[in-house]
Design brief:
The structure holds two protein chains of two kinds. By secondary structure, chain A is an all-beta fold. Chain A is 0% helix and 58% strand. Chain B has no helices and eleven strands. By secondary structure, chain B is an all-beta fold. Chain B has strands spanning 4-7, 10-13, 19-25, 31-38, 42-51, 54-57, 64-66, 76-78, 87-94, 102-104, 108-112. Classes of the chains: A mainly beta, B mainly beta.
């Protein structure tokens, strides 16, 4: 069974620190991998999309990497800010039809 | 730039009532899907469609029906609502032949009493 795991489930760090969120998956035959953020009671905002032929993508203070051989993706957030507090979701497109979500990491940046 | 539009945003139903959650996208995406999100359970796939006239079941399809008569629309029907269907529902679409990036609607919060 294809699974996506996000560890840790929750994380609190002081403002200004760099941090890494992890996403692991059981099947290396992925199509794309996408990171989202979700604020409480809100919808999903796309952060970064990594296509299977790529190894990383960057947007501002965010950098996402993809290592298919180890079945892992990481989301790196530099110089964290209180506004980064949200739940971060990893979604893995094992095929273009069956799109599986991780349960997310709840991030709290302490002012 | 409408993207993916869901209606209604909020709905309260009584057990046994029926309703339809509407989802429309204006990006000519072949792929559309419905998810439900519950505390501690993450996003779970209900049904998906890879094109007009084609639908398939996801992880939690029981109690829900879908149809895809046009590329733009993918309604989700609850024929006889149950309290277990209280949830937040998200519709998403993707261009399978392009980048594959997934786009989401803003969600529909459903309460079944």
């Amino acid at each position: 069974k294809q699974e996506v795991t996000q560890i840790p489930a929750a994380l609190s760090v002081p403002e200004g620190e760099n941090l890494v969120l992890n996403c692991s998956f059981t099947d290396s035959a992925i199509y794309n991998l996408q990171w989202f953020r979700q604020d409480p009671g809100k919808g999903l905002t796309s952060l970064l999309l990594i296509q299977s032929s790529q190894r990383e993508q960057t947007s501002g203070r965010l950098n996402a990497s993809l290592d298919k051989s180890s079945g892992r993706s990481t989301l790196y957030i530099a110089a964290s800010q209180p506004g980064d507090s949200a739940t971060y979701l990893c979604v893995n497109f094992f095929t273009t039809d069956k799109i599986i979500f991780g349960k997310g990491t709840r991030l709290h940046i302490l002012p | 730039n409408a993207g993916v539009t869901q209606t209604p945003k909020f709905q309260v139903l009584k057990t046994g009532q029926s309703m339809t959650l509407q989802c429309a996208q204006d990006m000519n995406h072949e792929y559309m899907s419905w998810y439900r999100q519950d505390p501690g359970m993450g996003l779970r796939l209900i049904h998906y469609s890879v094109g007009a006239g084609i639908t398939d079941q996801g992880e939690v399809p029981n109690g829900y029906n879908v149809s895809r008569s046009t590329t733009e629309d993918f309604p989700l029907r609850l024929l006889s609502a149950a309290p277990s269907q209280t949830s937040v529902y998200f519709c998403a679409s993707s261009n399978r032949q392009g980048s594959g990036e997934l786009f989401f609607g803003e969600g529909s919060r459903l309460t079944v009493l």
